[in-house]
Amino acid sequence: MRSEPEMTSPPDKFQDHCGLFGVTNHPEAARNVYLGLYALQHRGQESAGIVTSDGQRLHLEKGMGLVADVFDERRLARLGGPHATGHVRYSTAGASFLLNAQPILINGWRGQIALSHNGNLVNAAELRFQLENDGSIFQTTSDTEVILHLIARSRKETFEEALMEALLAVRGAYSLLVQTPAKIFAVRDPNGFRPLSIGRLGESWVFSSETCALDLIGATHVRDVECGEIVKWSPASDALESTMIPQLVKPSQCIFEHVYFARPDSVVFGKGVNSSRYQMGRILAEEGPVAADLVVPVPDSGLPAAIGFSDASGIPFKFGLIRNHYVGRTFIEPKQAIRHFGVKIKLNPVAEILRGQRVVLIDDSIVRGTTSKKIVEMVRAAGAREVHVRISSPPTISPCYFGIDTPTKNELIASSHSVAQIQEFLRSDSLYFLSQDGLRRAVGDRSNFCTACFTEKYPIPIEADRSQLDLFRKET
Ligand code: AMP
User: What is the pLDDT of residue 463?
Assistant: First the structure.
């Protein structure tokens, strides 16, 4: 009997924020993917990569940092060929090294395969143990590589069959761009957790996590990749071929894309994100009314909801907090700094707006609670007479295992504190969270959303994996 394999190199980080972009059949494929990734930068700031195909071979360039820092003229010039896919990635903790940057490119017996993944597999650890036990040698600590190993090891005759076999083995969230020298596949898992859109630019097909990136390169949004759909492009035909993954599950698309993650100028899961957030704000004003002088958004995430709140309540909207848009991931503090800059480096109150006012502060979510607490303190210090906090989503009570980076359950303030206790922690004059019903109404009640972060009802059972996933989180 085989013994359980030792876990020598556990995946360091299971939650990846990511963005995907791909272009077929374009004389400037790499440059268009560069632009697409630029528009998807909010989905990942840690690394960026582009793979191109000249029809014979794949060429890869990737690096740590922002898209504009990773790619320069010299690097883009090395990315020849009319077909390209790319990826931006963000993981908050753990070993964030270049090997984990995507696309991940392998040379297998089937030839070259490049994979870009947005989402998170919930059975990656089990699969990895099995694969390592059977002799696979992993290069990265990311769950994405499991898919490549499954494709590479498949005995199926065609690439398409091998891809399908791999997808039937994995569970969880995956929007994928898979590129070989001759083909590009765009895939969404059967639940459809993460978005993936298809666009058209002249003769080219374009694939993008969000439609805002289609806009930038002038592509029109044709449709989304369906939940459970594998869309195949090959030079043999201009038309895309579609195959469904034969797993019957109810779609459960991520509601948090509408709450926080996606850009408001994107259409996600068939609905404009801005209008969802605006409605969240309107409904929030109806559910949690308050007598106040000003509605102030926490920029940028609270903006559309604050406009909705102001319109519905009649309370004037004012920019009482200004955000520095140029803050990078790290900054140098004065050597002798006694106090920690924290949220101050990002946000600064406008005292002349806030002084003496009863302020309604609007933000999209409270995760740990630390940011909101500092903002309340900052607004009060700037002279506000009262600070009322309104949150345009329900309390976040459970971690996401499907690709949104959230801390473990015990770090989520709402998992262990009532609304009254959170208000006490924030030291705000009042606090109200949008109801679950209000959120559903705001996004259009089609009941095909994953709301697990607010309900702890996971659409894919993860009980068996959860302790292991949390273990990995702790190790980061
Ligand atoms: P905190 O409650 O201090 O953990 O932070 C809440 C703030 O983080 C809110 O302003 C949200 O807009 C923002 N936020 C919510 N979810 C995430 C996430 N997954 N990653 C980064 N920031 C987030």
Answer: 62
DSSP letters spanning 137-189: --S-SSTHHHHHHHHHH---SSHHHHHHHHHHH--B--EEEEE-SS-EEEEE-
Max alpha carbon distance in the chain (Å)? 74
**How far is the centre of ligand 1, averaged over its atoms, from the C-alpha of 367 (Å)?**
6
Angle, alpha carbons 375-380-384 (nearest 5°): 120
At residue 71, what are phi and psi to the nearest 5 degrees? -110, 130
* Model pLDDT, residue 362: 98
Give me the pLDDT at residue 395, please: 98
The pLDDT value given to residue 332: 65
Provide the pLDDT for residue 326: 84
């803050």: which residue's tokens? 327
Angle at 212 between CA 19 and CA 84, to 5 degrees: 50
- Which residues of the chain, if any, have pLDDT below 70? 1-16, 91-96, 328-340, 447, 463-476
* Residue 129 tokens, joined: 């143990």
Measured between alpha carbons, how far is 20 from 188 in angstroms, rounded to an integer? Answer: 12
Q: From ligand 1's centre to the CA of 370, what distance in Å?
A: 9
* Beta-strand runs (E) in 309-423: 321-323, 347-349, 358-363, 386-391
Ligand 1 pocket, 45 CB below 6 A?
A: no
Residue with tokens 């303190």: 377
CA 96 to CA 102: how far, in whole Å? 12
Name the one residue in this structure whose structure tokens are 């009802």: 457
Quote the pLDDT of residue 472.
41
Q: Note the pLDDT tens digit of each residue in 2-51.
A: 333 333 233 333 456 799 999 999 999 999 999 999 999 999 999 999 99
> Ligand 1 atom closest to Cα of 256?
16
Q: Is 435 in the pocket of ligand 1 (CB under 6 A)?
A: no
Query: What domains can you pick out in the chain, each with its CATH number?
Result: 18-251 (3.60.20.10), 267-458 (3.40.50.2020)
CB crowding 218-237: b at 16 or more within 10 Å, else e = ebebeebbebbbbbbbeeee
Give tens-digit pLDDT for 105-128: 999 999 999 999 999 999 999 999
Ligand 1: centre distance to CA 287 (Å): 22
**Per-residue model confidence (pLDDT) at position 245:** 98
The reply to whether ligand 1 has any atom less than 6 angstroms from the CB of 301 is yes
CB within 8 Å of 373: residues ≥ 6 apart: 425, 426, 427
Can you list the alpha helix ranges (DSSP code H) found in 348-393?
351-354, 370-381
**Contact 40/49 with Cβ under 8 angstroms?**
no
AA identity, residue 75 = R
